[in-house]
């Protein structure tokens, strides 16, 4: 392979060939590119390439270390699976956007310095918005604009941080940092926006459900996990992240419980899972960071898988709203099967990948004595069992619709099912062979996944949560799903901010109009006064004979003479 | 897809959901058994990191309590948050 070429470039440059192809050749091309990228990454091994001196600053185009390699592997897998899932799409824009987006995310993972990171960071923002706009609805367009504003803001803050960081340290090196200077805070906020920190999170739930069937699968894999990688590289062991992470685990699950749109439910739940990773970064021990890398990878597997299942529902029935679905297991049995497996993975059922990955972070928190944090994470684990693990299969596939089951549809197309099977297989494989899975992680940590105690406690957690869910449904206390939306923090900029802007605008307009009116009246007054005095036939414009003027002047001189003589 | 209307599905039978519920109860009880055994130091031994975990069936109880808390919070905030689907349009 080409020596030192960042694997991301293979996907980005390959995307430029897509418009020249069609049909089978295009399918072959888009599937080959992630495979080639993967091969390039493996053939490079570990190290740095493309080191350039620029105005005394060192730019490193490609840098692969054990931490970035884990993310690189899963990003290539996600890109391949997502492209396989979207083979039926005839829209060239979506294929190009997917490839450039995935390629720039991979490029960012393997960026050896802050400037290279920034460039790829911005390309991910600009390329991914086309996956939202590709829905070609008014709503998707507006959502995409909001998404783009927020993503580009993250990039601008990152660039500002880089400028300050270079001024402080004279280096572009991207490594562990101490939170303290303006530069490092800027980095935290830039990464935090993309990681969907609490209050910076709404772009996820706003845009993902508006993207196309395949677009959401692609979107869910890269941006947020790229941010997790950046945080893990820059801020391991930063205490603040633990507390941010706790809020992040708790806050979105309430919304996930109430949400009717299954894709938005998943977006909220994914946000909560991000919280686990942020906590892991905050703890910052080798075990915790292994947990972060592992859970980020597994989270991509099950989130993509479940977005594929809900996407297939949307593709076949035209909706992903729980209230409009019913008994889909009858007509989409295979999709239902994969959704059930995906749910087992997300609830961290033994023998699935999340059982291994989540326990790393939980154990690391116990080991460091963060008992309350651990309790909050357990709460988050229970919430995801109910919000996704049970809600998606029950409300998406198995429950009968209270009014009338929708008309039967066909199961998902073969290539979609293949993509689901691929991710399912990997999620099970990593769970059955945690040793092999852990050998890919950045640090060498011995951890026994399958102890009797661990299996029993996890089964207790899952089965009692299931029991509680079943009881709540039977007793009719489960919050019934409604065709409605739930206000979140984005209300502040979509409603309050908007009306504030409109009110301010109206106020400025009123004041301005009044001011203009006042001025106009003033000018009009001056004019009419002038007309009164100097107008045609008025005092000041009246003409008199020159003899009268001479008499007046002589009289004036006479008075002056008298006065001057007198004194 | 007329075959779907002809085919009989187990879940459509009367009482099927009751059966599912009974299975869930049974499984939950089975998952609790090792903790009961551990009380008598029989076959199974707990490995705990915190005192909380010494409570029998701690994880099961915690799951139930967490779920209850989630439901209460969700139902409490719902009236304040719910709006019509076209609220932002």
TrEMBL record, chain A:
Keywords: Cell membrane, Membrane, Oxidoreductase, Transmembrane, Transmembrane helix
Pfam families the record matches: Proton_antipo_M (PF00361)
Domain NADH:quinone oxidoreductase/Mrp antiporter transmembrane intervals: 111-381
InterPro entries per UniProt: ComplexI-like_HydComp, NADH_UbQ_OxRdtase, ND/Mrp_TM
Predominant cellular place of this UniProt entry's protein: membrane
Coiled-coil ranges from the UniProt annotation: none
Localization annotation: Cell membrane; Membrane
Chain segments annotated as transmembrane: 7-25, 31-55, 67-88, 100-133, 145-167, 179-200, 212-234, 240-258, 265-284, 296-315, 336-357, 369-390, 417-441, 461-481, 502-524, 544-565
Membrane topology reported for the UniProt record: Multi-pass membrane protein
Protein name (record): Na(+)/H(+) antiporter subunit D
Annotated organism of origin: Sneathiella chinensis
From TrEMBL, chain B:
Domain of life: Bacteria
Membrane-crossing segments per the record: 20-44, 56-74
Keyword Membrane: yes
Keywords, in A-Z order: Membrane, Transmembrane, Transmembrane helix
Protein name: Holin
Source organism of the structure: Sneathiella chinensis
């Amino acid at each position: 392979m080409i020596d030192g070429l960042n694997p991301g470039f293979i996907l980005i440059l390959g995307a430029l060939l897509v418009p020249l192809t069609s049909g089978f050749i295009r399918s072959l091309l888009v599937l080959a590119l992630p495979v080639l990228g993967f091969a390039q990454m493996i053939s490079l091994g570990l190290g740095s390439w493309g080191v350039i001196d620029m105005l005394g600053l060192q730019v490193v185009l490609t840098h692969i270390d054990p931490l970035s390699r884990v993310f690189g592997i899963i990003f290539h897998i996600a890109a391949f699976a997502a492209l396989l899932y979207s083979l039926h799409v005839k829209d060239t824009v979506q294929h190009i956007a997917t490839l450039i987006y995935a390629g720039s995310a991979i490029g960012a993972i393997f960026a050896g310095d802050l400037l290279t990171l920034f460039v790829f960071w911005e390309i991910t923002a600009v390329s991914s918005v086309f996956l939202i706009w590709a829905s070609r609805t008014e709503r998707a367009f507006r959502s995409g604009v909001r998404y783009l504003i927020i993503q580009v803001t993250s990039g601008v803050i990152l660039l500002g941080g880089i400028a300050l960081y270079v001024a402080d340290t004279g280096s572009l090196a991207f490594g562990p940092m101490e939170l303290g200077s303006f530069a490092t805070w800027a980095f935290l906020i830039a990464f935090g926006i993309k990681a969907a920190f609490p209050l910076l999170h709404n772009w996820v739930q706003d845009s993902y459900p508006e993207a196309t069937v395949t677009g959401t699968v692609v979107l869910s894999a890269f941006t947020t996990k790229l941010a997790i990688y950046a945080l893990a590289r820059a801020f391991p062991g930063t205490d603040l992240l633990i507390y941010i992470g706790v809020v992040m685990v708790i806050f979105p699950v309430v919304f996930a419980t109430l949400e009717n749109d299954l894709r938005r439910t998943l977006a909220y739940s994914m946000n909560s899972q991000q919280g686990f990773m942020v906590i892991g970064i905050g703890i910052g021990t080798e075990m915790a960071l292994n947990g972060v890398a592992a859970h980020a990878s597994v989270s991509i597997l099950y989130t993509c898988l479940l977005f594929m299942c809900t996407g297939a529902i949307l593709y076949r029935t035209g909706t992903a709203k729980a209230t409009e679905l019913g008994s889909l297991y009858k007509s989409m049995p295979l999709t239902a099967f994969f959704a059930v497996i995906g749910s087992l993975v997300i609830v961290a059922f033994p023998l699935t990948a999340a059982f291994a990955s989540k326990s790393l972070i939980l154990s690391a928190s116990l080991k460091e004595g963060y008992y309350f944090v651990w309790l909050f994470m357990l709460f988050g684990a229970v919430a995801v069992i109910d919000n996704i693990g049970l809600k998606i299969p029950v409300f998406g596939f198995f429950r009968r619709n209270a009014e009338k089951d929708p008309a039967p549809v066909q199961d998902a197309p073969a290539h979609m099912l293949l993509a689901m099977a691929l991710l399912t297989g990997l999620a099970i494989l990593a769970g059955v062979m945690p040793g092999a899975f852990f050998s890919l992680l950045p640090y060498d940590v011995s951890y026994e996944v399958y102890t009797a105690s661990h299996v029993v406690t996890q089964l207790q957690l899952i089965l009692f949560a299931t029991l509680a869910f079943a009881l709540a449904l039977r007793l009719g206390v489960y919050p019934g799903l409604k065709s409605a939306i739930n206000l979140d923090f984005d209300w502040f900029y979509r409603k309050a901010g908007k009306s504030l802007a409109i009110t301010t605008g109206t106020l400025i307009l009123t004041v301005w109009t009044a001011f203009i009116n006042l001025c106009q009246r003033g000018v009009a007054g001056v004019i009419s006064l002038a007309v009164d005095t100097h107008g045609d036939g008025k005092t000041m414009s009246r003409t008199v004979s020159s003899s009268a003027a001479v008499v007046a002047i002589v009289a004036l001189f006479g008075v002056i003479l008298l006065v001057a003589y007198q004194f | 897809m007329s075959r779907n209307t002809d085919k009989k599905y187990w879940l459509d039978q009367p009482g099927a959901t009751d059966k599912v519920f009974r299975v869930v109860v049974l499984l939950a009880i089975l998952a609790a058994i090792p903790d009961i055994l551990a009380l008598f130091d029989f076959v199974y031994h707990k490995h705990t990191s915190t005192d909380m975990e010494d409570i029998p069936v701690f994880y099961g109880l915690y799951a139930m309590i967490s779920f209850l808390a989630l439901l209460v919070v969700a139902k409490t905030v719902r009236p304040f948050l719910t709006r019509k689907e076209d609220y932002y349009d």
